[in-house]
Amino acid sequence: MDDKFLTADVYSAQTLEERLLLGNEAVAQGAWEAGVRVVTSYPGTPSTEITECVARHEEVNCQWAPNEKVAAEVAFGAAMAGGRSMTCMKHVGVNVAADPIFTAAYTGVNAGMVIVCADDPAMHSSQNEQDSRYYARAAHIPMLEPADSRECLAFTRLAFTMSEELDTPVFVRLTTRIAHARSAVAIGLRNEAPVRPYQKDAMKYVMMPAMAKKRHPKVEAREAFLAEAANRMPINVVRMRSTAVGVVTSGACYQYVRDAMPDASTLKLGMVYPLPINLIREFAQKVDRLIVVEELEGLIEQDLLAAGIACEGKKYTGVQGELSVEKLRTVLCGQKAPSEAAQDIPGRPPVLCPGCPHRGVFYVLGKLGLRVMGDIGCYTLAALPPLSAMDACLCMGASIGMAGGAERAQGKAFSRSTVAVLGDSTFIHSGITSLIDAVYNRETITVIILDNRITGMTGHQQNPATGLDIHNQPAPMLNLEKLVESCGVQDVAVVDPFDLKGTEKAVRQAVAREEVSVIIARRPCALLDKAPHAPCIIQGCRNCGACMKLSCPAIVRGEKGVRIDEALCIGCGMCVQVCPFKAIRLGEVESK
Questions:
Q1: 145-173 exposure pattern, b = at least 16 Cβ within 10 A, e = fewer
Q2: Predicted confidence (pLDDT) per residue in 450-474, tens digit
Q3: How far apart are CA 278 and CA 307, in angstroms?
Q4: Are strands 418-423 and 371-373 parallel, antiparallel or unpaired?
Q5: What share of the chain is helix, strand, coil (3-state, %, to 5)?
Q6: pTM attached to this predicted model
């Protein structure tokens, strides 16, 4: 195996200028400078901006994929065929892509393949605090972790070099703070990495058992080689200061340590798997006390203890949430945490936007008292009061399977009062197979696809049902009605969720049927509609509170009645439909 990556200059060889970049922007720049040819991803906060930034470069074939598994497979195909490739996803997206990723570690690659995974400590926009370092260990794939935007660029460049020299995909791990923080970055030139020749090699790329058994020892040999080489990698940096305390850390945690413990000696890990055990052992011998500072799970600490290196860490920092300078000062330095006046301020939970088309669907479902198996998307906010219209939310595409499982446990009477709700992008991501399963197994569930014509939850990315690609150029538009029918669904209805009576009628009919029914609630996301809107007008309010059940931010209730915030109202008219006293009416747009 080649070890040139040990001496390679990981930073830009020729600096054109310095820019202040997000970590995500820097990863995109690093991939471009490394000569990446194919980038394919599914949007997921906090990783989304990487692919959006890459799409600005005409030299790169960039695309949104239906899900992370497809993205990883396309990236692998590109690398196998000789072009450098990258796929980006959030931590739970790695779960979806794990199938091809694990086997790609066996086959190896031809050109470099980089997998960027962005973890989300504190769950700013996620359903769990999964630690992707476990995947590096389980899949036997090296993982780099940058600590600022400069390293995001440099480590991405290095990852492509390592991938080709070690014949393996390489993980680059970000966390929310690194992905969305800005720091100075030296911008360089693009290295037009030539497309490598493709050679048919069934023993390498066809993972039948006989071939896989021969590839597995190569994986183990590569990992052993890299574990030794890690001790000499320049991205694992020792900075000796006071010998009273030494800290082993990486990523964003390194920044916290430097501020909270400026006198402590540090070993900043640029590669978090495999660990440079010998380097860490030498560092530990130079300090009186060794502390490991890492967010989420205590993987580094566990490995050091297993190697006989005395250390401590998780008993102070815990395994939940983000760390911070203040927390480290408190738990490691004994300093009293500053008082936070903000603790007395009530929380402001997020709400569906004014004019959100999903609001009408959930209002109807709440009115009918139906159980709702929900899904991942901005519509998950309908679980909060006063809509309170969601019973469960597990993962992308799970709503249909959960509804089917509930029917299997409770019977068809239960399913007639239960619906599965998911978005158009989520349905394409991983709901299609669940719908096929429901039809195939003769279930009687009702599925509602909230088709708002965009991937809304991550900031309006295109998907196969929007008719546009990542460059906003025309693309074949997936016909959801025909797709649903081709899955075997006989009862398919399309409704406008702003039409509350029509939506209610469709739902009542669907849940009464003795077969799988699908309702497509179609109206574009309110943020896509740039046309001028006149706010609704309220006169003679009796303060009954009926309109408050819509949970619209534009509707404000006071002691003397309800008022409508003209700055927020987009005139969707749902409040007009629910007011029992006809005190609300639509406004009129002034003609120019």
A1: bbbbbbbbbbbbbbbbbbbbbbbbbbbbb
A2: 999 999 989 999 999 999 999 999 9
A3: 10
A4: parallel
A5: 40, 20, 40
A6: 0.94
